[in-house]
Design a protein that fits this description.
It contains three helices and five strands. The chain is α/β, with parallel strands linked by helices and about 110 residues long. It has a single domain, classed as Uncharacterised protein PF08960, DUF1874 (Rossmann fold). The longest helix is centred in the middle third of the chain and has 11 residues. The radius of gyration is 14 Å and the shape is globular.
Length: about 110
Amino acid sequence: MIYLCNTFSVSMLPRCEVNQSRGVMVERISAAQASEMLRREKVVSAFGHAWAAWHLSRYLKVEIPVSRAEIVLKPGDRLIVAAVANKNRWKSRIEGMPRWVFYEVEVRS
């Protein structure tokens, strides 16, 4: 399964016991790679900010549904993190458009 959101947190990983670990791979990907993945595979959106989702939809030319779904990744799941690089400047209206950076996060077994 592929998930889409704007951040990654350890709370998205399956619960760990004391002294247990989880393997996670994080790779920076291009906007073109993110767009292709979102077009090609079934995606669950957890992108909860409507205005940012609208901008991201236009940027990637892919419909991004707004949802605040909770994500718990399982081994083999992938997460595309679409982060705004100029968040404070964009929110303060200093810059008119968000600049996006993309990461692919994969949970290893």
